[in-house]
User: Which sequence fits this backbone?
């Protein structure tokens, strides 16, 4: 690519070589007139050596000085009359114009040669005036040299137009369109700019180095000029002149941008505001004079002014038109920008999708002048959508959850942002349509990553898409802003839900772990108890046996009784071990359908056998309860334990124990409530109530396996025990037991009846 | 304990004449052997017991009328306790074993009427001993009481299925134990 470009540049430069060279006489004239000691005779001789040039000079002088100074028939007279400088300029102009003449066969191009030369002359005059004004200051610049440099500074443009007429047309067209910098466009379209081309041409034509540098380096910021450039001051002067001329719209330079470093130029050249003003005042007159001598047509100062003004006016008109268009566009964008800013301002960072939806609806109503609108949010993959209806005041008038039966069709490439609501959105329309106006439903899809995550729906007439077509780009921007905010809220919601689920899962895991730990602990207690039972029951058997034998041999009743006590206590110890073992490794339950009233009766009977009820009031009430499906013996033993505890906790005289059974259809369990008005338990005791061998009392209390074992038995039948207690107020034990389904009871009862009948 | 009897001893035990014993021996109704190198007749204990049962002769007179009980436990204190309790009663002839293997050997020699068997033995479990005894038709009459410190109801059921007659948990009540032994031996 780079190679191709270089090749192209090389070709252009080769074509440059084919341009006619300047006649040798021109160079000689330039050289001689530039010298301080040159004589008129030398110049005249040089010009007269070229007859064609002589004729042209004379013609020029005739045109320039019509009748004022009488006939000028000789070159010598012309030089005397007009002075070296004018003659030199004339020679130069004639030669250059000749060399760079446009092929007459081609149609006129966009690059206006006449206006261009007018511009060049203006720059040349300006540079000349500036150098004259600055002669005494610090610039030792010959005004004549400044003039030549100004005249030729943009010669590269003409050269490009001659060599590549079609490409240069494109360059001019593009620059006009973009109001850009000509050199930039040249580099883009052609590959090199007029400065470089001009420099090459200057070298080929062997123009003086100062001229070459001005062609090459003009237009640059003085601060960017390398120190090695010998003619830096001259270059800066030309740049300043160029800037001034373009400010006055004199001629056509092909360029629309102004250098931003005018102050630097003024400083670098040593000029001042005063000099600039004086220069500008005298410029038009100077141009008028020079134009004549250069044969660029006769232009009065008035015409030059008019041309400049009209060009400036055209420029202004063009700019103003563009500004108006931009302004309209900006005003519209500002509306959307305001809407979006308001939208984002309404939102808190952790807003839920419903809040974002409401804000979307609000902005839609105000930015698009719609009323009312429905907005919906749909999590990707979910089968429902959250829908809000927002009225013209931005208030939410309805909200619902709609079953999203069908994935909404996303807009196809080429669709505008405003779509007509199709059959695929029927699920949505049915729930909101009555609240919208108009007879047609339009919507805009909010999407992320190719999925519809929501939308804005409104009602209007048929022309709605056209109404909003001019704002398509802004609507899309608004939609993507909304979509982004909505998706963010959805994701936040998802992660919030996920976090909650995670917390719940953690909690369950912890429970399961506790359960597992409890199971393991119990298993190891079981192992230990089994081992202990074997190890301890043998010595206990010996103690018991020996004390029994001893008792048989003792005649003293006191000693006899002591020996019997030893035997009894060893049996008791053995009982504790058995309890512990049964607690840790309960016998697998044999669940059978059991009548609860009977179960409670038997348990109560047994509990009364264990502890004398005394004057305690014991009340049993049975609600409508189905049979329970439990291991009869184990659950009975558990109830005995709970009742026994209640008996022990209550006062012998004032004690009250209320037993009530009821059915909880929700959990399909039967609840046996055993409430007493006994001493109750404090929190610490309650927390450890089911722990084996735990006892809050330091003394006077028998082994604490009772409730622990009761819970194990009830649990192994699929039930549970809950305790509520307050010190000095009493305790309520709830024994929950799995009920046989009423229907099943009916079925079994029916079956049993049938069997009985059979 | 005496395991082999002469015809005179057998006659005394059975309360019949020696001639009757000799006749029955020679007719093969009473099993026995002759001492090698002589004509002396000898009668093993089992053969005598079988003969007495066949002919409805009370066996009480054998071993002074005492019932034989084998106590099997690896805990010497327990064994000693049982021996003390049973001998104090006076109706029982007691032998002991400390393992399942010993129990097998002694059962063959002693032919006990009742075995008090610890469930947890060092070599085999009580139920195995129980089954082994039950498999031998000669030991059909032996009653078995299993004692243990650790047994749940399921294991008790299994033991009873394996041929045990009674289960007693350690520690035990002596009176109840003796009463149950008496019931099982019908004394």
Assistant:
């Amino acid at each position: 690519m780079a190679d191709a470009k270089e090749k192209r540049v090389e070709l252009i430069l080769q074509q440059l070589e084919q341009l006619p060279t300047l006649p040798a006489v021109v160079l000689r004239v330039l050289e001689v007139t530039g010298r301080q000691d040159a004589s008129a005779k030398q110049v005249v001789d040089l010009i007269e050596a070229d007859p064609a040039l002589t004729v042209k000079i004379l013609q020029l002088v005739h045109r320039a000085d019509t009748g004022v100074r009488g006939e000028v028939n000789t070159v010598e007279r012309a030089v005397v009359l007009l002075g070296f400088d004018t003659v030199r300029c004339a020679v130069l102009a004639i030669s250059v114009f000749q060399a760079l003449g446009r092929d007459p066969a081609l149609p006129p191009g966009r690059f206006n040669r006449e206006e261009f030369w007018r511009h060049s002359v203006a720059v040349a005059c300006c540079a000349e005036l500036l150098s004259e004004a600055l002669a005494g200051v610090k610039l030792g610049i010959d005004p004549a040299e400044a003039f030549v440099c100004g005249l030729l500074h943009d010669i590269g443009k003409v050269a490009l137009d001659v060599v590549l007429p079609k490409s240069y047309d494109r360059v001019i067209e593009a620059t006009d369109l973009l109001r850009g910098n000509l050199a930039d466009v040249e580099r883009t379209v052609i590959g090199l700019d007029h400065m470089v081309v001009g420099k090459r041409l200057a070298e080929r034509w062997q123009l003086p180095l100062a001229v070459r540098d001005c062609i090459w380096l003009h237009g640059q910021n003085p601060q960017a000029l390398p120190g090695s450039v010998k003619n830096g001051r001259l270059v800066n002067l030309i740049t300043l002149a160029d800037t001034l001329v373009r400010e006055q719209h004199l001629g056509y330079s092909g360029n629309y941008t102004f250098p931003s470093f005018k102050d630097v130029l003024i400083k670098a050249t040593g000029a001042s505001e005063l000099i600039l003003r004086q220069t500008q005042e005298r410029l038009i007159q100077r141009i008028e004079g020079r134009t004549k001598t250069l044969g660029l047509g006769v232009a009065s100062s008035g015409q030059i002014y008019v041309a400049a003004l009209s060009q400036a006016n055209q420029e202004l008109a063009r700019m103003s038109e563009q500004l108006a268009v931009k302004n309209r566009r900006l005003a519209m964008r500002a509306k959307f920008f305001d809407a979006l800013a308001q939208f984002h301002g309404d939102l808190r960072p952790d807003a839920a999708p419903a809040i974002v939806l409401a804000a979307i609806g609000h902005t839609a109503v105000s930015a698009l002048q719609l009323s009312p609108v429905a907005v919906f949010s749909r999590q990707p993959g979910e089968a429902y959508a959250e829908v809000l209806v927002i009225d013209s005041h931005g208030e939410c008038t309805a909200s619902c959850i709609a079953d999203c039966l069908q994935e909404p069709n996303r807009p196809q490439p080429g669709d505008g942002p405003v779509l007509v609501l199709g059959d695929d959105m029927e699920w949505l329309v049915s729930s909101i349509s009555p609240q919208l106006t108009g007879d047609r439903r339009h919507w805009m899809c909010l999407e992320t990553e190719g999925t519809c995550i929501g939308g804005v729906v409104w009602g209007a007439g048929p022309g709605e898409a056209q109404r909003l077509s001019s704002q398509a780009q802004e609507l899309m921007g608004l939609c993507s802003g909304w979509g982004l905010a909505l998706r963010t809220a959805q994701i936040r919601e998802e992660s919030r839900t996920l976090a909650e689920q995670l917390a719940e899962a953690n909690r369950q895991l912890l429970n399961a772990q506790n359960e597992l730990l409890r199971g393991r602990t119990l298993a190891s207690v079981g192992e230990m108890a089994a081992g202990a039972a074997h190890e301890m029951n043998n010595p206990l058997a010996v103690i018991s046996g020996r004390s029994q034998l001893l008792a048989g041999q003792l005649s003293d009743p006191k000693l006899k009784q002591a020996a019997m006590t030893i035997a009894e206590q060893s049996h008791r110890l053995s009982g504790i071990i058995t309890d512990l073992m049964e607690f840790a490794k309960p016998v697998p339950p044999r669940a059978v359908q059991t009548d609860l009233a009977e179960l409670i009766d038997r348990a109560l009977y047994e509990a009364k056998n264990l502890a004398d009820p005394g004057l305690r009031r014991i009340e049993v009430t049975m609600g409508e309860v189905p049979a329970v499906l439990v291991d009869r013996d184990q659950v009975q033993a558990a109830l005995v334990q709970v009742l026994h505890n209640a008996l022990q906790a209550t006062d012998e005289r004032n004690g009250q124990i209320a037993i009530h059974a009821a059915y909880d259809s929700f959990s399909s369990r039967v609840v046996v409530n055993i409430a007493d008005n006994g001493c109750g338990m404090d929190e610490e005791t309650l927390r450890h109530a089911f722990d084996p061998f735990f006892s809050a009392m330091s003394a006077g209390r028998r082994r604490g396996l009772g409730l622990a074992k009761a819970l194990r038995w009830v649990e192994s039948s699929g039930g549970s025990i809950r305790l509520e207690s307050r010190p000095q107020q009493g305790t309520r034990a709830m024994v929950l037991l799995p009920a046989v389904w009423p229907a099943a009871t009916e079925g079994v009862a029916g079956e049993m009846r049938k069997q009985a009948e059979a | 304990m005496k395991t082999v009897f002469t015809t005179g001893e057998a006659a005394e035990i059975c309360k019949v004449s020696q001639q009757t014993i000799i006749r029955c021996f020679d007719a093969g109704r009473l099993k026995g052997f002759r001492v090698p190198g002589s004509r002396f007749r000898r009668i093993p204990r089992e053969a005598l017991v079988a003969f007495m049962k066949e002919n409805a002769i009370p066996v009480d007179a054998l071993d002074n009328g005492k019932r034989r009980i084998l106590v099997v436990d690896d805990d010497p204190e327990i064994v000693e306790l049982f021996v003390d309790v049973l001998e104090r009663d006076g109706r029982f002839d007691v032998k002991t074993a400390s393992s399942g293997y010993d129990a097998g050997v002694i059962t063959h020699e002693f032919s006990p009427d009742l075995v008090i068997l610890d469930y947890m033995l060092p070599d085999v479990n009580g139920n195995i001993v129980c089954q082994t005894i039950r498999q031998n038709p000669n030991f059909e009459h032996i009653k078995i009481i299993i004692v243990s410190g650790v047994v749940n109801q399921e294991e008790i059921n299994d033991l009873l299925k394996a041929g045990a007659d009674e289960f007693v948990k350690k520690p035990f009540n002596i009176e109840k134990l003796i009463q149950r032994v008496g019931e099982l031996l019908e004394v």
Q: What stands out?
A: The CA atoms of residues 105 and 165 of chain A lie 12 Å apart. DSSP finds 26 helices and 13 strands in chain A. Residues 472-553 of chain A form the longest helix (82 residues).
